[in-house]
Design brief:
The chain has 1 helix and 9 strands, in the order αβββββββββ.
Length: 193
């Protein structure tokens, strides 16, 4: 093949790979509007919520790659490395009533538990026990009820749940504590000012 044709093929191939990576990354970091085809079955009627409303999306991105691996490179304690993730519509809200409107865009049951972060603690650093869960002592509340408020048995794929809490100023970790989910990246930070 002539050198000029080889360069054209090589540049075209590089552009295709770059476009594929950019598309995949864009899908992975879209956030609350990230909607997967299997997560559209259950429609919940969500009441008007009080206080600052934060839209929270929980997803398990790794299932898009056909199993245990993830689009971003495997398991880990970063929400961008594991096959699961939590996204919020905003990173901070004012102190007082805060409502979390949680949408499960994954294939598995999920929940969102609110845990305070002390001092300089970081998200994703809680000790994971033998059951694949973290200690929930100190939890301020959770959204784990399919099409309902507060605690339940988990939010079904495609469904929503919600919770309204009175949160003082501070840093909070939102996490899914279903077995194995925290270690797979379902955590994020919410700051209350």
């Amino acid at each position: 093949m002539p050198v000029k044709t080889s360069r054209t093929v090589l540049l075209g191939s590089a552009a295709a790979v770059a476009l594929g990576v950019a598309t995949t990354a864009g899908m992975a970091f879209t956030g609350p509007s990230f909607d997967l085809p299997w997560a559209s079955g259950t429609s919940c009627s969500i009441p008007d919520l009080h206080g600052a409303v934060v839209d929270v999306t929980v997803t398990d991105m790794g299932s898009m790659m056909g199993g245990r691996g993830s689009m971003m490179g495997g398991y880990g304690n970063s929400r961008f490395q594991g096959p699961m993730a939590i996204y919020t519509s905003q990173r901070s809200v004012p102190a007082g009533q805060v409502s979390l409107r949680v949408r499960n865009n994954g294939r598995f049951l999920h929940e969102v538990i609110v845990m305070p972060l002390a001092g300089d603690a970081r998200v994703g650093q809680r000790a994971i026990g033998a059951t694949g869960e973290v200690d929930e002592t100190g939890s301020l509340g959770e959204a784990s009820n399919t099409c309902g408020s507060g605690e339940g048995d988990g939010i079904a794929p495609g469904a929503s749940g919600w919770v309204t809490l009175n949160l003082p100023a501070g840093r909070y970790e939102l996490l899914c504590n279903i077995e194995g989910h925290y270690g797979s990246g379902t955590f994020t930070e919410l700051d209350v000012t």
